[in-house]
Amino acid sequence: MVTIKKASQLTGLSEDTLRYYEKIGLLPRVQRMDNGRRIYSQEDLYKLQLINCLKKTGMPLEDMKPYLDMPPDATMEELPELYDLMMSHRERIQKQMQDLQTVLDFIDAKMEEGLLPDRKCTEGASREPAGPPKERFNSINLHQKVTN
């Protein structure tokens, strides 16, 4: 059992955030000491780690609750509706990663071509590109990747 301060340090979440998650029901009401201060169990810390992980994927807090309510020994295959939701979320993340890779490829190509000078983006905006685009990237590929 750890105090709210220690739970905050272990999870990287602020004490206010920990209280908020309890208030909205994302975490069940945590135990209290005799003086009313919160103490977090290992199970609470596990759930906070899961919240952190799902939050990093862009999952809204309200969508996390069913995963947090799963019995500890349950598997996703035993809960097909949650499995389907997680697979759908996973596919959205994969699409985001592909889109970000396209943007990263674009930036890399422009940097290799020397088209990102060290000045404000409005200066020299009408400048012609320095030669043809690199083989691995061109504006047609960018359009195709983004629209697919």
Automatic annotation (TrEMBL):
Comp. bias regions, Polar residues: 138-148
Domain HTH merR-type: 1-70
UniProt keyword Isomerase, yes or no: no
InterPro entries, per the entry: DNA-bd_dom_put_sf, MerR-type_HTH_dom, MerR_fam
Stored Pfam families: MerR_1
Top-rank lineage group of the source organism: Bacteria
Biological source species: Paenibacillus terreus
Protein name as it appears in the record: MerR family transcriptional regulator
Keyword vocabulary terms for this entry: DNA-binding
Region feature Disordered, mapped onto this chain: 118-148
Keyword DNA-binding: yes
